Structures are given as structure tokens and as C-alpha cells.
Amino acid sequence: MSMKPDVPAGTLTLMILRTVDVLGPLHGYGIARRIEQASGDRLELNQGTVYPALLQLEQRGWIKGSWGVSENNRRARFYAITRAGRKRLAAEEERWRVASEMILRFLDAPGGAR
Amino acid sequence: MSGVRAALARLRATVFRARLDDELDEEIRGHIEMQAEEFVRQGMTPEDARLAARRAFGGVEQIKERYRDRRGIPAVESLARDLRYSVRLLGRTPGFAVIAILTLAIGIGATTAIFTVLNRALLQALPVADPDRLVALNNTSPNRILPTFSYANYEDLRDRTRAFSGLIAYRYAPLSVSHDGINERLWGYLVTGNYFDVVGIRPALGRLIAPSDDEARGAHPIVVVSYKFWQQRMGSARDILGRTLLANGRSYTIVGVTPPGFFGTDVVSAPDLFFPMAMLGEIETGPTWFDDRGVEILFVVGRLRDEVSREQAAADVTALALQLEQEHPEQNKGKRITLSAPGLFGNVMRTPLIGFSALLMLIAGLVLVLACTNLANLLLARAADRRREMAVRLSLGAGRLPLVRQLLTESLLLSMAAGVLGLLIAAWLVSLLEQVKLPIDVPVAVDLPIDRRVLLFNMLLSAFTGVFFGLLPALQATKADLLTALKDSGTAAPGRESTWKKGLIVMQVAVSLVLLIGGGLMLRALSRAQTIPLGFTPERAAEVSFDLRLQGYPPAAWPDLQQRLLERVRSLREVRSAAVADVIPVDMHFSRVRVYADGTLPEASGRAPLTYSNRISPGYFTVMETRLGRGRDFTAFDKAGAPPVAIVSQAFARRMWPGQEAIGRRFRLNDEDAESIEVVGIAADGKYASLNQDAQPMVYRPIYQAVSGSTTVVVRGDGNPATLLALVQAEVRRLDPNIPIASARTLTERLALPLLPARMTAWLLGVFGALALVLAAIGLYGVMSYMVSSRTHEIGVRMAMGARAADVRALILRQGLTLTAVGVAAGVVFATLMARLMRTLLFGVSITDVPTYAGVVALLGVVALAACLVPASRATRLDPVFALRSE
């Protein structure tokens, strides 16, 4: 059993949206690798779990998948962020900032810490 | 909304499932290969790289499963999966599927057909405006059969009621109609002028009868034709308005056509023509009934005022009935009026209709229950076989619900397929019913639409059936009794469940026995009926009947017309003898009158005895081959003005003058003050109104003396009597080209009518009995097969211990036949109870008729034996070693 933490609930969505927003259209493998790298390999991510998440994002219309050819000539599905996706990403980022600031302030406050 | 968008995406994914599955596979494959290439670049061997890439991806199948759950609509997809699985499973045992569907379909079909009748008669509204506000008034005074009113009483009700915005009256009229060179015997309505206003329909063409068409008696010779009549008889011609047609000897101008779908105000009849009530005296010649308050002949229907409730209306008519009784105590003694929904000849048909349909529904339902129990049994046996499979699936973590759902899908698939087939069967049965032409002259016409309500009934019944026979086996199979099931290696312990099964088999045997004995008794009764002494010879004789009254001939002209016709008919080479009569036997229309013997007082009971009566021409007894014992036949001189004479039956003579000479005695009919009639001859006894009755008194009067417009010509020849029919009909047309023939048939055909109820019952019981027998045989076979397979081990032990094949066979047969015997015993008891109920149809066949019972029991025995023999011989072929190892 790995001692690394699981991906926190709800963060995968944010990570995927952020990835495709920053890097442009990308296939599932690229997204999974990017998230692994960005977390500095501190996350225990089964790469496969990005696929149900991608499906959910696509169903909501935040990303759009289309078949294309990868850098080494392999057929793959590329996911690009949509306008609705950008709006959502902004909202998510804001939410996470507020939430983490709040948690941090709480942890730093006297009596809040151990 | 992203929620809606997601739902749509899911729906799309459900539809394009297979393609999306392929795409996902490709995407995942590509992913793993890219990762593997990356690892190779980092220096791994290709083999290690592929394994590492897979590890990094995680469980491929789990991911796919999660992906799919999110992608489509799981309930629909699992239903589709269940369905596919069920179809495959049923396809593996097509015999089972076919039998299951067929037996269920017959049960469902019969039940649906009966429901269609009930739907029409009791649930569907009349095709009129605002049918809920239309109410029938029923004259329920003592001794009334029909709920009808006299015209005078109707007028008083109409003028005095405060609960109804309109009160209408109508009467069925037998019609003889001539148009475009065709003569027909039809039924019409005589309606009051407000009839169409009150029912609230608009004409399809022209105009309908208005109050101004119903003012002066006999002065409104107009007619409205039904849409059906206009379509079928006038080719939907637009120019029929103003044309005339001849009805009962008078010409009527066509003024309009009723809208399609309108069939009057009774559901089981369909009048072709509508006449103003003012024409009553023209349509039905004879005494005018307008003024006689005692002649109650009109059906009355009213439309409730908007603000009036049914209770208020009931109080209103009750009060009016009391008023009528007080004002006219003689004619309206004990007058009572009740309200009911219209459409069933007032309310008179309701009880018999419900009773008859309930009986049919009971028989059909019984067969359906049998089919269900059978299927439940078969599925139970299969469930037991699959219990191990289920236990394995349950222990692997499958939920019980999906398994039950899977099993129920299977039974629902069967029952829904049966429902569709059943609907076809019902449609066929209903079309047969619609075509039935009753061999009696009554205004019956049924139109039985299969509407949404019938479809809904059919679907619900099918679904209910599927759950009914599927749920118990499904629950049984998925019982979370894992340990026993797994240890048991699939053989269920024969416990309570098999007692159940045995009970079902006993019931099936009993039910099929009851139905078959019923059918058998009816067949015996029918063959017995052929040998009943009738008092006349039906073979080689034929009849043609018509009604001179409907042609407008005055009574004085009738004897002459009949005599002229007889002369012509008798001169035909093919005819050996001929006569005319008012009615000929066997006919339920024979009327009965009271007899007052001269010189004797009415009996102590204060009531004079009743006798059948007929009016006949000379030569009648020769044609009918009825023995004329003593005295003389009538002659042409026994006519109006001559001394009143009669020929009586032996039973009449015995009844009136026991042990004395009857010839020369005198009596009166109907009334103590009527003319005195002399007996001039004695005729042999016979059957008159039904085949069941004992010798009844009968009095024959000369038809030229006691005249009758209703005319039946009877002829006897040497050849086929059917050939005589055309000849006689041609002579009738020569007499008057406009006379419609009411009936033309051989006397043998006529005798089919009194046997009709017996024949229908025999047919019904026979068909359902045979069906029940097949079901019982299948059930028995199923249960015995199951017994053998669940006793495999025991049989193996027995054989290993030295039991011979014959012993094993006897063991199994004994078990099966014991069940049958118990069922037979129960069935015989119920059969005698049922036979008691249908005694009137049995023509003297005993309700415990030994040949019938013995025959049916033997038949059942043979079928049961055959059903047990296959499993029994399968048991004898068991290899003991294998049987023991199977544990």
C-alpha cells in the first residue's frame, strides 16, 4: 500500500481544467502525466481515473474531446477547454483560493493550532 | 443547464453504446502504449514497460465500469442486458417458451374479449352529448318484465317533471322495408319529437326529427336513416333527401341521416330507421296504443337539469309515480319508477349481462390461473436448477435485487409476449361475437370496439400475470440461503415447496376434470336430445315465414291470402303436403292463454289453467306428421262466421276432462265470457316451447277462423327440404313482391335453436376443458420431471441396492398417479355440483351419468400416465454410479 495521499475530492476537476487551459488541447495520457508531474509525484493517481472525470467534464460542456494525431503519430482523443469551461475554471480557482486561505488563516490563528 | 446537457449526453450514450465502448477501448489502449513508450525511453525493456504502464493506469475494467456508469443510463442499460439475457435463455428452451406464451395468450385473450363486452356495456358512454346527464326511467311496478311506460303515462311524466330538462320516449318497431327493389326485415325506432334534441346530436346529412314532426297522428310520413343504413344500403348517396322508402306498407320521405357512431340509446341494439312517434299506428297496425294507459310499451329516458342531482331526480319520479297511481289506480296500481344509467333496455339487461360475463370471466380466469400456476411450477423447477448459479453470484457480491429483476424480466417477457398474442386472440373472438346472428328475431346488434381502456386492461393483465407467476420462483431462487444452496449441489430439499407444487397439480387435475365432465355431459345431452320424441317429424320438411301485419293488410284479408298461397304451393311438383300456421314448434314464442272449461268453475286456486295455443290451416297435422287420434281435422269451412271449433292435445284433454270423452266438450279462452269453443279433434302430444318440457296442454284453432297475420308456411317433400325453400319463397313473392321473408329454413335447422344454449355450453366447456387438460398434463410432467431429478440420489441408492428398472418406474408412476387420483376425487365432487347447476340443459341425462364420468376419468388417467411415463423411464435409465456421484 502506498503512503501517498489520494487526490482530494473535487480537485481532479480543477486540475484537469487548469491543465487543458494552460497547455491547450491534450490527450488523456498527457493530462494524467501533467497532473502527476505538477503534484511533484506526491499524489497517488491511478492514471485511469482521469477518464471518468474527463467524461463528466465533457458531459457538462466544460471541455470538448475530438480525435486527432499525437506528437508521435498515434490516434488519440484530444480534450480542449470550452468557454463554459473557462468560466467554470475561474469560479473553481476562486473557490479554492477562498477556501484554502480560510483554512490557512484558521490553522495559523492562536488556539487553532495544536 | 449543464444538468440537462449531461442527461442528453447520457441518453445519446445509451443509444450509441457499442460504438462508444470501442472508442473508450482505443483511447485506453493508446494511453497505455504511450506510457509504455515513455518507460522504454527511460530504459526499461519493452516487456517491463508494458507491465509498468498497466500498473500506472490502474484496473482497466474498473475504470471502464465507472466510466460506463457515468456515461449512460444504468437502469435502461441493465434492463436491456436483462432482456438480452432473457431472450437468450428462453431461446435455449423454445418449447417451454412457446407453450408458456400460448397457454397464457389463450387465457389473456379470452379474458380480454370478455372485458371488451363489459367495457361496451357498462363502461363506455352512449354516443350522445353529455352522456352523464342522461338517465333511464325504469317502470318497476309489480309484475313488469320490461321497464316501459304507456304513452299516456309518458306524457304526464314529461309535462310534470321538474328534475329533467327533457324526457324522451322510444319504441322498437319491427319493420318490413322496401327500397331500390330490395325487401328487408329490419328494426327501427319510433321516437318522440324531442328525441334528437334531448340526446343532443347533429345530423350527418339533412335534418333530424323535430317536435313539429310529431304532432298529428299518422300525418308525418318522414324517416331519418342511420349512418350505417345510408352507407351500406344507399351507397352514401348525397341525393337521398326527399327520396322515399316503403315501410310496413306505407311510403316515408327520407329527411336526414344520423351521425356516424350513433346507434340509438341502447348499447346492444342498432336501429336502422327512425320514425316520429305519431306514426305508431301506421308502423304497427292494429289497435292504437296512444290512448290506453294500461299498455306500457315505451322506453323513457331523460336529461337531468344542470342543477339537479340524481337523488333529487329519484325523489321527483317517485313522487310522480305516486301521483299517477292515485289518479289512475286501475292501470297504475303499485306504480314505482327507479332511475338507472341508460343503454341496457332501461336497466333490465344489467344483471343478466353482469352475471353471464362474470361466469365467462370465471372460466377464462380459471384457465389463466392454471396457466400461471403451471408456469410458476416450471420456473420453480428451473429456479431450483439455477439456485447454485444464483448462490455463486450472490456470494460474489451480486445484489439480490438485480437477480430478482433478471428473473422477473424473464417472466414479464413471456407474459407481455403472451399479452400481445392474447390481444390478437381477443380481437378475433370479438369479431366472431359481432358476427353472431342470433337465430331469434330480436333487435340485437353489437359493436365492440377495442379502445384504449381495453388495451390498458390487456397490458395490466399481462404484466400482473408475469409478476404473479414470476415473483415466487424469483424469490425462491435468490433466497440468501447460501450455505445450503452451495452445499446442496443444486438439489433442493423436497419440503414445503414441493407440497405446494403437489397442491397445484391436484387443483389442475380437478379443474380440468370439472370442465371436461361438464362438456361431456352436454355432449351426451345433445345426443339424447336427438332421440326426444317431438310429436312431429322435422326431417324432409321446411318452413318459410312472414308477417302480413307488417304489410298493412287488414285482418279480413289474411285468410284469403294464406289460402291462395297454399293452393299455389300445393300445386308444386316437389311438394307432397303443405299447410300454414301462426307458429310452429319448437319455438319459445308460443303464447299461453287461460282456459275456462264450460260448466266448471275455475279451480280452487282461483286461477284458470294455462294452455299453449296455435292457429293452423287444414292439413297441418299431415305435414308435421303429428298423429290426429280421434275426431276430425279442420276444413276450409272452419272460417269466420262458422261455429268456433278447436283441436286439443291429449294433455289438454287429460287436464281438463280427466278420464272423460273430450270431443264435443266446450271451453273458453282468455276470459270466462269469451265465445264458447267446441272440441272436434284430439292430437298427439309434442314439444312446443322447449325440448325440456313434459307434455303440455295445447289448443289448435283454425287459422281461417281465429285469424293470424303472422304466417308460417310448412312444406314436406321427398327430396332435400332445402330445395323447397326457394320454390316457396318464389310463390310468396308472386303473392306480394314487397313481403320480406322473416325466416326460411328446414325444420332440422329450426331445431338447432332450442339446442343452442346446450351447444354453446358444450363448446365452451369442451374447449376450456381440453385446454385445462393440456395444462394439467404439462404441469404433471413438469413436477414429475422435477421429482425425478431431485430424487436422483435416492434412486441411485435404490438401484445400487438392487432395485430393478420396473421397481423404479413403479415408484415414480405411483407418486404421479396418486396426485392424479386425489385431483380426480376432488374434481368428481365439484363436477356433480356443477352438473346440478346446468340440469335444465341436460335433457334428462343424469347429473351423475356414469359413462361420462368414467370416460373423462379414463381420459385423464391416460393423459396423466403419459405425462408421468417420460420422467419415470428417465429415472430407470439413471446410471447408479453416476447418480451417486452427482452428489
- How far apart lie the N and C ends of chain A? 29 Å
Question: How many H/I helices of chain B?
Answer: 26
Principal-axes geometry of chain A comes out as globular
Could you tell me the number of beta strands of chain B?
A: 21
CATH class of chain A: Mainly Alpha
What structural class results from the helix and strand content of chain A?
alpha+beta
Measured by DSSP, the beta-strand proportion of chain A falls in: 5-15%
Order of helices and strands of chain A: HEHHEEH
Overall average residue pLDDT of chain B? 83
**Major sheet of chain A: order of its strands?**
1-3-2
- The CATH superfamily of chain A bears the name Winged helix-like DNA-binding domain superfamily/Winged helix DNA-binding domain
Rg over C-alpha atoms of chain B, rounded to the nearest angstrom: 38 Å
Q: Supply the CATH architecture of chain A.
A: Orthogonal Bundle
Low-confidence blocks of residues of chain B? 489-494
Biggest interchain interface, per-side counts: A-B, 25 and 28 residues
Describe this entry's structure for a reader.
Chain A has 114 residues and is an alpha+beta fold. Chain A has 4 helices and 3 strands; from the N terminus they run H-E-H-H-E-E-H. Chain A has one domain: Winged helix-like DNA-binding domain superfamily/Winged helix DNA-binding domain (Arc Repressor Mutant, subunit A, Orthogonal Bundle). In chain A, helix 1 crosses helix 2 (28-38) and helix 1 (11-23) crosses helix 4 (83-108). The mean pLDDT of chain A is 81. Chain A has a 3-stranded antiparallel sheet with strand order 1-3-2. Chain A has helices spanning 11-23, 28-38, 50-59, 83-108, and strands spanning 26-27, 63-69, 75-81. Chain B folds into 5 domains: 2-72, no CATH class; 74-126 and 351-493, no CATH class; 131-342, no CATH class; 496-532 and 751-887, no CATH class; 541-747, no CATH class. Chain B contains 26 helices and 21 strands. In chain B, strands 2-3-8-5-7-6 form a 6-stranded mixed β-barrel. In chain B, helix 6 (94-123) packs across helix 14 (452-477). At the A-B interface, helix 2, helix 3 and strand 3 of A face helix 1, helix 2 and helix 4 of B.
